[in-house]
Amino acid sequence: MSGRISLAPLVALVLALAISLPGALAGFANSYDGAFTFTCPAREAISGVYSEHSNWHEDRRFRFTCSPGPNNAISETCQWTGWVNQFERIVKYICPANWAITGVDSYHSRINEDRRFRFRCCQISDYRVSGCSMSPFLNQLDGVMDYSVPQDQVLVGWFSYTDSNYEDRRHKMMSCPLRQ
């Protein structure tokens, strides 16, 4: 029949988008402008941080991965910090000696277009950390951050500064090898 348009391709496209959209958002600890509290499972520490920035929201969303320490080195003795930064101020945090970052809590201000952070650290048992190193900046302003803690190391520090022209932060991470 001429003059009739088949809706089948349009329906197929809508279904494909509906199925793939949740997968595209899956795994993020927060939505843009949203608060989050992420905590690794017991006896695991953060081993990866992925973040992407939205210019529309002037915010980042974060995805974390966790890994167990060798021989259950990450204990269940843990504590949360208070907020480590004010809006539009530097984040400069290092866990106490022989503790590792196992959680991150953050909320966003639409007025300041910035985030505040606090961290959860857990004590490391039967190992000590030494020979720590700071990563270079892991993202450009408005860019993606994709960081993996080096093999046989733990994340112990998080540093960032904000740039109000870009309404974004650049991040660095500190990691340390575990030694017996």
Report the sheet with the most strands, covering strand number, pairing sense and barrel closure.
5 strands, antiparallel
* Uncertain residue segments: 10-25
The rounded distance between the terminal residues' Cα atoms is 78 Å
The sequence of SSEs as H and E is: HEEEEEEEEEEEE
Q: Which structural class do you get from the secondary structure elements? A: mainly beta
Number of strands: 12
Average pLDDT, all residues: 89
Shape field: globular
Q: Supply Rg.
A: 20 Å
Question: Approximately what portion of the residues adopt beta-strand conformation?
Answer: over 45%
Kindly describe this structure:
By secondary structure, the chain is mainly beta. It has one domain. 10% of the residues lie in helices and 49% in strands. It is globular and about 65 Å long. It starts with 7 loop residues before the first helix and ends with a strand. Its main location: secreted.
